Amino acid sequence: MNARIAYIASNTFREAVRDRVLYNLIAFALLLSGAAIFVGQISIEIERLVVVNLGLTAVSLFGIVIAIFIGIGLVSKEIEKRTLYTVLSRPVRRWEFIVGKFFGLAGTLVVNTFFMAIGVFGALLYVAHKFSAADLSILVALYFIVLEFLIICALALLFSSFSTPLLSAVFAFSLFVIGSFANDLRGFAGLSHGLTRWLATGAAYLVPNFSALNVISAVAHQQAISGQLILQNTLYALFYSAMVLSGAVLIFERRNLK
Amino acid sequence: MAAIEILGLEKTYMVGFWRKRPKRALQPLHLRVEEGEIFGFLGPNGAGKTTTLKMLMGLVFPTAGSARILGREWTDPEVKAQIGFLPEQPYFYDYLTAHELLDYYGQLSGVPAKERKRRVEEVLQRVGLTDVKGVQLRKFSKGMLQRAGIAQAILHNPKLVFFDEPMSGLDPLGRREVRDLMEQLKQQGKTVFFSTHILSDAEALCDRVAIIHKGELRGVGAVEELTSSVHGKVEVIWQGSQIPAAMKALGGECRISGDTIRAVISDRQQDAAIDALRRERVRLIAITPLRTSLEAYFVEKLQHSQTTAGTTA
Questions:
Q1: Taking 70 as the threshold, does the pLDDT of residue B305 lie above it?
Q2: For residue A228, what are the contacts with CB-CB under 8 A and spacing of at least 6?
Q3: How far is the C-alpha of A103 from the C-alpha of A151, rounded, in Å?
Q4: Which residue of A lies nearest to B103 if distances are taken between CA atoms?
Q5: In chain B, whose CA is at the least distance from the CA of A256?
Q6: Is B220 a residue whose pLDDT tops 80?
Q7: Distance between CA atoms of A108 and A173, rounded to whole angstroms?
Q8: Do B95 and A11 touch (CB under 8 A)?
Q9: Do B85 and A92 touch (CB under 8 A)?
């Protein structure tokens, strides 16, 4: 990686780590894992299913909230506070700034996911008393959650490069909700006709397909995740994030920093 | 070689709800700043000083025109390794300490790790922030932030430094220190381009100044050239409490303040004035040729532009 991108990424990571709101969210996620233990205890015979389901959902949701919360301010806050002036007046290209910010936020989320995953596995060990081979698929679900975060980070950055933090949050969260139903949208497109079919198909393929990345329920039911899905989802997430990030760079390259 | 060559840079913003109404922030600007000089860019608020600086820094894109900095295209990112920039009322990452901030900027400017450590300590000492280098910037006062801003602008030992209102937020001592720093930079052979509306600073520091008003360049030249427009008058200062009749007869303008009297007379009457004061046996303090101040020149240029605008309208 280009050294300047690495420096910007590491500074973004440092900012997130020093942001107290982040700790609140992590604490909240850990609390939810605790709640999973409690619910697991009162759910006879299905403790594992409940703990995995609730724990992974908590990791995913809080990660999304953190990604959106931090991501929407990554560019707009720097413009508003004019911190960007002293960065871009150095030999830093605008695309390097955007890519550095992306990696910084993605890195933050990977570290967060790691700590939250420890919470989930801890809860699982508490209710099941031992790990089984099937629990390895939880790692796959966590990997898909991280891929989901990459897309959300890129989207939040894209919106942050031209919009206000509030609107960026609305756009990013709306896309997350719509993307979570992307498979249903594709199903609807298949059933409709004429212009509706065209529009629904366009929308279904344009929004990020988060439903394909959500294997929490399958993992909770100890279903195996195929290697093909892992490869497919990896390529999809990387391609989608790269496209969105390119859009963010294109917009930011032309922006006057008044 | 010129340090800065501005070749017709201009900026028009599109304003209004549909962004269809043009608003000109800067008329085509042509300016040349030589290497090693302290150049003052003067103008009232909203004159176009910051827009010009932002265009040179690549933060705002010009509508037309170009510029060359240190002999290279101003858009060349490598040029930026050789320039330092202090924005107006700087704001920095407040979660960082002064030391971390400078280290980060050193990294971005490509200063090698070993040299960076030494340079950071050096500039912290130079701007008087060594004692608070471990304090987060959110706890800094406005003046301390300004010092941090100056430190980051000179950290990587640039050949050319741009300061946008560098005295803003500083107390008299701080202003003096910044003036000394600019002079030291000049002595080191660096070029300093600074915008200000504090004319006394410009008058004390600058080799040359440019005056900009309403986005248009109104005058450019050496401070002595611009301020030597009042010819043929001298100011005579002596000790006393009453104006001698002989001095009154010379027809000059006299003012008493405390136990000194000042009179502005024609330089042809200078000898007669000295004789008159000798006869009265008063103590002569000074006789100096009268020059217009930069402020007077500045006000005249601004009034002239307003009159021209009024006539055109």
A1: no
A2: none
A3: 12
A4: A7
A5: B60
A6: yes
A7: 19
A8: no
A9: no
Task: Label residues B45-74 b or e (16+ Cβ within 10 Å = b).
Answer: eebbbbbbbbbbbbbbebbebebbbbeeeb
Q: Is the pLDDT of residue B46 over 80?
A: yes
**Residue type at A31?**
L
Tell me the nearest-neighbour CA distance from B83 into chain A, angstroms: 8
Q: What angle do CA B269, B271, B273 make, to 5 degrees?
A: 70
**What CA–CA distance (Å, rounded) separates B301 from B217?**
10
B27 to A193, B11, B13: CA distances (angstroms):
57, 7, 12
User: What is the value of pTM for the model shown?
Assistant: 0.85
A181: three-class secondary structure by DSSP = coil
Whether residues A89 and B93 touch (CB distance < 8 A) is answered with no
Going by C-alpha positions, the residue among A18, A6, A1 that lies closest to residue A100 is A6
d(CA A104, CA A97): 10
pLDDT digits (tens, 9 = 90+) for B75-125: 888 899 999 999 988 889 999 999 999 999 999 999 999 999 999 999 999
At A127, is the pLDDT very low, low, confident or very high (cuts 50, 70, 90)?
confident
Distances, alpha carbon B51 to alpha carbons A40, B88, B95, B110, B183, in Å: 62, 11, 29, 27, 25
